[in-house]
Amino acid sequence: MPAHPRILVALFAATLSLPLTAVVADQSHASPDIKSLIAAGEAQLAEGKVDEAIATLSNAVAVDPKSSQAYTRLGGARLVKQEFSAAIGDFRSALAADPNNADAFIGMALAYLHSADYALARAALGEARRLAPDKAPKIDEVLIYMDQREGSAGLPASH
Fold it and tell me: How far is Cα 140 from Cα 95, in angstroms, rounded to an integer?
């Protein structure tokens, strides 16, 4: 796994560590199984069992295909495994279920960032910032990192 700036890891960890009480509104009709599957997937991920977490969270998505949180967590697990295209697909599914899921926008931004698609990463971070102004300081740190990275690559840094 390539070295990542601490801020990206911290932002990603903060996104994945939301308590289950923060489940998005679309979960109110979900089977009770979905919460336990998501919790199990999060625990597996915390233990470094990424493949197991992906399998568990894939099951959560199968149980409730409208669960924005399950897709967000699955995308996060795929980010850890560096499956960026698959993660982007999961985050898109999360946003289809809940277009106000700031954590899905953050995850998507990180996947785009690691895919070197800075324009889409910026757009996703802009949406996350709009939806979750309390996360603006961390989002701004990622944008500063992107400016520095683009500048060092000889690309014009835009903000």
Answer: 22
Q: What is the CATH number of the domain that holds 97?
A: 1.25.40.10
What is the residue-wise DSSP string for 59-111? HHHHH-TT-HHHHHHHHHHHHHTT-HHHHHHHHHHHHHH-TT-HHHHHHHHHH
Q: What span, in angstroms and rounded, lies between the C-alpha atoms of 2 and 23?
A: 31
Q: What is the pLDDT of residues 55-69, one digit of tens each?
A: 999 999 999 999 999
Task: Work out the angle at residue 39's Cα, subtended by the Cα atoms of residues 89 and 84, and round it to the nearest 5 degrees.
Answer: 20
> How many domains does the chain contain in total?
1
Residue 61 CA to residue 106 CA, distance in Å, equals: 19
Contact (Cβ atoms closer than 8 angstroms) between residue 80 and residue 49? no
Note down the domain range covering 114.
10-17+31-152
C-alpha span between 79 and 57 (Å, rounded): 13
Burial of 123 (0-12, 13-18, 19+ CB in 10 A): middle
**Would 115 be classed as within a structural domain?**
yes
Write down the pTM of the prediction: 0.78
pLDDT at residue 12, as a whole number: 57
Q: Fill in the amino acid letter for 141.
A: E
